[in-house]
Amino acid sequence: KIIILDFGSQYTQLIARAVREANVYCEIIPYYQQFDINETLKGVILSGSPFSVNEEKAPVVAISDFNKALPILGICYGAQLTAKTYGGVVNKSNKREYGRATLILKNEQDALFDGVPQQSQVWMSHSDSIQQLPPHFEVLATTESIPVAAFKQSNHSPNPLYGLQFHPEVFHSTEGKKIIRNFLVNICGCSQNWTPANFVQESIAQLKKQIGDRKVIMALSGGVDSTVAATLISKAIGDHLYCLFVDNGVLRKNEYEQVLHTYQQLHLNVVGIDAKEHFYTKLAGKTDPEEKRKIIGNTFIEIFDREAKRMNDIGMLGQGTIYPDVIESVSVHGPSQTIKSHHNVGGLPDYMQLELVEPLRFLFKDEVRKVGIELGIPAELINRHPFPGPGLAIRILGEVTEEKVHLLQQADAIFIDALRNANLYSKVWQAGAILLPVKSVGVMGDERTYEYTLALRAVTSVDGMTADWAHLPYDFLASVSNAIINQVKGINRVVYDISSKPPATIEWE
Ligand code: XMP
Description:
GO terms for molecular function: ATP binding; GMP synthase activity. Its EC number is 6.3.5.2. The chain is of the alpha/beta class and 509 residues long. The protein folds into three domains: 186 residues, Class I glutamine amidotransferase (GATase) domain (Rossmann fold, 3-Layer(aba) Sandwich); 187 residues, HUPs (Rossmann fold); 103 residues, GMP Synthetase, Chain A, domain 3 (2-Layer Sandwich), CATH 3.30.300.10. The chain has 14 helices and 18 strands. Helix 6 packs across helix 11 and helix 8 runs antiparallel to helix 9. The protein binds xanthosine-5'-monophosphate. The site of xanthosine-5'-monophosphate has 11 residues, from loops.
């Protein structure tokens, strides 16, 4: 395994993903956290940082201590900190260097640059740069604007010590993945055996050990994470896993039946709970978006709690928590600030003092999908768009009623089916329909209509944090609009949302 020490760079997770993509397991820990040095640990990567190494409060680690036992790769701030630690000079450059640059290798023979052409594009993002390397360090590469773009310690160290001023982990560093792979394999001697198949095997063995003969309860959402987590747990303990899938009345058309069917095919021990009426009653008359969210969350907990009490001797709680929710982010405001921690992401109350079982705690989303495929979960479920917990309730602006849910379910299904049929479903990150509390006049045949307006929303995104509206073809939008107005009685006008996030959000509420 590899440890990535995080100094608060926005790219730290990308380093971890690049390492994982090379089939090597790694963990991100805050730079100040202790870690065990043992035979499974093969190397350390030091991340970038918003700090300057010359700032008084700049975060530091004992690089030379680590290097006694392990190879080290410093990236950006990590490289500057390495240079400074050993007696080099790091200064503010007169030009800040952001964006593309051409990396020019000075030592093409070095194992770090195996297979990398003499010149290649890299991505820079720094305002300090290394003016002078410490004694016994060697420049491995430069760019047009900086003398030290890559270096290594050239002698006397028991273990290799490298630094890169550029960011090999970002997409725009075209040889970056290769350089990271070279560090892992050629320098650290990692074996590339972190694969979905190995993960499944090891994780089942570990779950068996962790759980023993206790019983686990788990709520399923129909989404990828909870399904993959439950399938893994179920492979480990079979029917000692009790799953609940609740129909909260604001799922998509036929979703409850279809998802339950899939769960049964996966041999999950699952109970479906039809709580539609209960949710509708609680939601009646409520129009405030945050209040609607809270009601749905609390009602869910109430039902979960009731069902959990009904089952005997439940000992543990299963959750589909994934790695991005777990990583403690290093504060950019200074090491003394409170560190965010996201525990119990599933939103269940603290009084449920059950030990957690979270088999996906160390996986990124793309790895969860690969593990899901490995487990034989249908591709349709694995590749589903994200769908918010409060469901259609936050896509019905204003009060939620059964009748409005029914209207929206039909319109949404027409839109989503059309996306699939036109091979557009996988090209957008998320899509859905929103029922607006606006009625307008229309004409159908000889008759005047006065009916609801529906908004269609489709976005492209990587992680939902930022998003652009999807530029769907006009012909496609025309046919969806036609189909909805003709088939869904109660909607006589369709509009397309062309706002990006920010400043808009993906959901309307
Ligand atoms: P926004 O609207 O904030 O949405 O741009 C970003 C992503 O988060 C989803 N979302 C939610 N998911 N509970 C959830 O589980 C919620 O209350 C919630 N609100 C938004 C949204 O669907 C999108 O994928």
